[in-house]
């Protein structure tokens, strides 16, 4: 009887740990470098140092070459993500098409997937952003 109780206890702990990990992968809370976005080359995205910072659990920051961008973001079960309340500095910059397109589309991204050192953000219309973890070697 005691063995069954202990076995049940350990199984419930393992299941709750697994469920928690599936809800919010711990490694999403990092700084991510943008490497794929529409028809922009990886070289241009790297040159402009485009990134999305998700190290804070509620506030995201980003930079797409000029202005500092900020958002509220929320993670939900089943790899759902939402961005809202976009705000940004208004610095004078050269024409920055990456920043404009990012700002126009970021609130449309509604799901995410992490595979190894890559983060994928997707919309229902199959628009996709691909990031690489900044701290990845």
Task: Describe the 3D structure.
- With about 140 residues, the chain is an alpha+beta fold.
- The protein has a single domain, classed as Lipocalin (Beta Barrel).
- The chain contains three helices and eight strands, in the order H-E-H-E-E-E-E-H-E-E-E.
- The protein has helices at about 1-25, 40-45, 95-105; strands spanning about 30-35, 50-55, 60-65, 70-75, 80-90, 110-115, 120, 130-135.
- Strands 5-4-3-2-1-8-7-6 form an eight-stranded antiparallel sheet.
- Strand 2 (about 50-55) and strand 3 form a beta hairpin.
- It is globular, with a radius of gyration of 18 Å.
- Mean pLDDT is about 85; it is low at about 5-10 and about 15-25.
In short:
With 137 residues, the protein is an alpha+beta fold. It has helices at 2-23, 42-47, 97-105; strands at 31-37, 51-53, 59-63, 68-76, 80-88, 111-115, 118-122, 128-133.
Outline the biggest β-sheet: 8 strands, antiparallel
Poorly predicted spans: 5-11, 13-24
CATH topology: Lipocalin
Q: What CATH architecture label applies?
A: Beta Barrel
Give the overall average pLDDT: 84
Trace the largest sheet across and list its strands: 5-4-3-2-1-8-7-6
Given helix and strand content, the structural type is: alpha+beta
- Helical percent range? 25-40%
Q: What is the CA–CA distance across the termini? A: 50 Å
Overall spatial form: globular
